[in-house]
Amino acid sequence: MIRGDVAPPVVCCGPIAAPDMGEGDATAAAEVFRALSDPGRIRILNLLANSPDPLCVCDLQAPLGLSQPTVSFHLKKLVAAGLIRGERRGTWVFYSPEPGALERVRRIFESGGVI
Fold first, then answer.
1. Which of 41, 43, 81, 87 is at 20 to 30 A from 34, Cα to Cα?
2. Which domains does the chain have, with CATH numbers?
3. What DSSP line would sit under 15-28, residue for residue?
4. What is the pLDDT of residues 16-45, one digit of tens each?
5. Handedness of CA 23, 28, 32, 35 (dihedral sign)
6. How open is the CA angle 32-55-44, to the nearest 5 degrees?
């Protein structure tokens, strides 16, 4: 996995509708929302979630209509938020959704369960 010097991924946050959402849960949810606040990042996550195989930057550039540096920037934000992960294969890094990440995002909106 490629993480570099980024902060550890967000792995937990309670539902928005929880009556006792604490500061930590609110901060974790805000990190996820911050990562998803850009349409390009949402599209990247969608492409990765619907791909049977991990994708590299070069696979994402054309469908997104974005340059390599811009795609790499967005991927870094999604990795830092714990939504995707990168796996180095030689000189390339291939990205896929972090296992359980989409389920954790879904749970943020529930009024019962804890992530």
1. 87
2. 23-108 (1.10.10.10)
3. -TT-TT--HHHHHH
4. 555 567 788 778 888 888 999 999 999 999
5. positive
6. 35
